[in-house]
């Protein structure tokens, strides 16, 4: 039977919630316990499904009747016709100055921003993990060379480096391949922060006992890196890759706003804002929807990254006022249950309970019993039990002892 103090200790350590669960199950439980992260996943999935299914992708038609390249006459001066979730109208996000449907253009911009974000996350994540893992594990001249390379890339302003690489991608490729190339080139410039974090993690893990055991067992360096150390660093990697993707979409937006990202006739969320910056005071909806999608996507990625960080880091504990109150109630009920018998007995006799009675009922006696004799209390109890000065002397015993010694 679990006592009250034991229950308090289990709840304080979280053992009652994660006892018997694997590491993956614990991570999933913590992540899905983060409300903001779970909501962000569904919102981000909704944006992805809406953007790719509405206007189609790679020749697959969508359910929306307009394309982002279709021209037409403006309706209602290009103002949005959205009147509710069940009344979208012909142009729910309005039209630009030459009559293109702004909903289709925003969906195309969201498509390209999501593609670039994923490509940057994959490329930057792979390069950063490999460079950080190799430099942190091998140390020596390998670490020196790779870290000096990281320092060279870091000292170049990221926006300038990404602008040069984006210009090269825009002048070499066209269409969707230009978007993928842009993400690839930006990924080549944004991996340095992740590499330093992974290196620090590997420097710590390479000195652990399980690495020494694998090395003694004859495992190769490649196997130790990718089979033993890397799985223990997955929390740091996943969290920082998600944050890398969030910063990547802002970087792509900035490049497109400056005219160094996605080129016409394609559009991105940043280029939509750049093209319509002169119409901010007269037609502000041309800013509302691209800006709203940028903010929502970045917030979703950040909330998911925060949820992953809390799930993978055991030191991150979410404070719950309800759970703290339950612990206090359990502690109070345990103390009350322990003192209740003594209080009841003393009250039944007609006088107030004493402190010694309460202590005795809780299992602690203020007296020390010696064998089967009467209880002996007071400061002389220990001395009497050990044959102290209160025990009478035996002269005959001493004389007999002396006689034996003489013999």
Detailed description of the structure:
By secondary structure, the chain is mainly α. It has a domain at 105-297: MetI-like fold, CATH 1.10.3720. 67% of the residues lie in helices and 1% in strands. The protein contains 18 helices and 2 strands. The chain has helices at residues 4-13, 15-18, 23-32, 35-54, 102-138, 140-155, 158-172, 175-187, 192-205, 209-216, 221-232, 234-257, 269-275, 285-312, 321-349, 355-361, 381-385, 395-406, and strands spanning 368-369, 375-376. Strands 1-2 form a two-stranded antiparallel ribbon. Strand 1 (368-369) and strand 2 (375-376) form a beta hairpin. Helix 5 runs parallel beside helix 9, helix 7 runs antiparallel to helix 8 and helix 10 (209-216) runs antiparallel to helix 11 (221-232). The radius of gyration is 37 Å and the shape is globular. The two termini are 64 Å apart. The model is unreliable at 1-15 and 363-407 (pLDDT under 50).
Structural class: mainly alpha
Major beta sheet summary: 2 strands, antiparallel
Instruction: Using the CA coordinates, give the radius of gyration.
Output: 37 Å
Return residue spans where pLDDT drops below 50 for at least 5 consecutive residues: 1-15, 363-407
- Mean pLDDT metric: 75
**Beta-strand content:** under 5%
- Which H/E pattern describes the elements? HHHHHHHHHHHHHHHHEEHH
CATH superfamily of the domain at 105-297: MetI-like
Which second-level CATH architecture of the domain at 105-297 applies? Orthogonal Bundle
Strands ordered across the widest β-sheet: 1-2
Work out the helix count: 18
Distance linking N and C termini: 64 Å
Net shape: globular
Question: Roughly what percent helix?
Answer: 55-70%
* Strand element count: 2
CATH C-level of the domain at 105-297 = Mainly Alpha
Per CATH, what is the topology of the domain at 105-297? Answer: MetI-like fold
